[in-house]
Amino acid sequence: MHMASILAPTADAPAEAPIAEAPPPTFAELGLAEPILRAVADRGYERPSPIQAQAIPVILRGRDIMGLAQTGTGKTAAFSLPVVHRLLGGPRRTRVLVLTPTRELCLQVEASFRAYSEHAELSVVAVYGGVPYEVQEEALRGGVDVVVATPGRLLDHLEKGNVVFDDLEVLILDEADRMLDMGFAPQINRVVEQIPPYRQTLLFSATMPPEVEALARKYLRKPVVVQVGRRNTATKTVTHAVYPVPRDRKSRLLVELLRKPEMDTVLVFVRTKPNADRVVRHLEGAGITAVAMHGDKTQVQRVQALEDFRSGVVRVLVATDIAQRGLDISNISHVINYDVPEQAEDYVHRIGRTGRAAATGDAYTFMAPDEIATVRLIERVIGQEIPRISVPGYDFGTFVAD
Fold first, then answer.
1. pTM flag (> 0.70)
2. CA–CA separation, 71 vs 77, rounded Å?
3. Number of C-beta neighbours around residue 134 at 10 A
4. pLDDT tens digits for 149-197?
5. Rounded Cα gap, residues 192 and 144, in angstroms
6. Which intervals hold domain DEAD-box RNA helicase Q (predicted)?
7. What does the DSSP assignment read for 14-74?
8. Contact 191, 199 (CB under 8 A)
9. What is the pLDDT of residues 366-394, one digit of tens each?
């Protein structure tokens, strides 16, 4: 069975949902129940995003779905809203499982289900590593409607009998490409083996590499494909710029830019964990509040870093690519690529942290002389030239040593 057969139209529904045209329908017109509409209204949302307008009716019909969308398009609500609708009035048992690649995304999805079910009396638990095992065990054994989990920790609970999926109705694979990139394919297969085959399966992914196609062929039945945007398409609400700067002057240029009043909430990407810590020390030495987030941080430290950043306790979050996806921070004003990402797709994911949900944002990239070729490759892949900004004393084309 080839991917073409998965994407082909079926008798009862088109394989590719039509692009929602302006004006989009209201959430009420999509058929969502009143308790969910109240929760949506509480958060100030009036009309669904394109991915939501396309996916929600399909999911409400009980169809399997393959959602292809970049970050920041509202995909979490695209599946959490109709799934909460499905759970209304049902028995208290584990009926929904969401598998996510990272702890951060796990918490984001849990928060989404909690928010949209606040008038529906549903229970949700997040299951991930790096936090006390016993708290999760107690919640699972007590019975919950929705389990949101990373594959490794969930397998631990399954093997100990803390949770069973005999009554599971919906399986959601969120950011499937990322899960496969992180090597979770064996764990995903072991989890799915313990789930009833007659279920609704929803798969969401930013990209469609062969590995994701194989996963879709294995687990989805005649899925409807919903796609928003194209792979490697940079967010249109983001203003891009490249700053040519010698590598040893990047820290000083960063401080100079961060002193501008419009640099309110800034996410800085670096390639390595030591560099993240070094940049934070440099910023703190310049009187700028900053915190690092990378793989060497404990789960408690990472959650605290995100909370401090969201609440404004610190202005700058310096992160490795662990933070490319799965971060739900709506008010990021600027993304700065302190190091040029090695892949164009990584560039798209990084800058997708700003300009979310139709807001505008700025993405700046610091380009050292040995990074020129990588920037040009990124420009070719995203199909646009990124303007250069020359800062006196920093541009290596005009720079004169002290």
1. no
2. 12
3. 8
4. 999 999 999 999 999 999 999 999 999 988 887 889 999 999 999 999 9
5. 18
6. 25-53
7. -SBPPPPPSSPPPTGGGT--HHHHHHHHHTT--S--HHHHHHHHHHHTT--EEEEE-TTS-
8. no
9. 999 999 988 988 888 777 889 999 988 88
Closest of 309, 311, 290, 293 to residue 301, by C-alpha:
293
The CATH number of 238-382, from 3.40.50.300, 3.40.50.620, 1.20.1250.20, 3.30.43.10, is 3.40.50.300
Q: Are 217 and 362 in contact (CB under 8 A)?
A: no
3-state class of 304 per DSSP? helix
**What whole-number distance in Å separates Cα of residue 282 and Cα of residue 55?**
45
Tokens of 257: 């830019």
CA-to-CA separations, 250 to 227, 295, 368, in angstroms, rounded: 38, 23, 8
Find all residues with CB under 8 Å of 309, minimum gap 6, and list them: 265, 291, 317, 329
Per-domain boundaries in the chain: 3-228, 238-382
Helix (H) or strand (E) holding 107: helix 103-116
Rounded to whole angstroms, how far apart are CA atoms 125 and 142? 11
DSSP 132-198: -HHHHHHHHHH--SEEEE-HHHHHHHHHTTS---TT--EEEE-SHHHHHHTT-HHHHHHHHTTS-SS
- According to DSSP, the β-strands at 200-205 and 170-173 are parallel
Order of strands, edge to edge, in the sheet holding 124-127?
124-127, 146-149, 96-99, 170-173, 200-205, 65-69, 224-228
Amino acid at 395: D
Decide whether 3-228 matches 238-382 in CATH topology. Answer: yes
Q: Half-sphere exposure (CA, 13 Å, Cβ side) for 396?
A: 16
Contact 67, 51 (CB under 8 A): yes
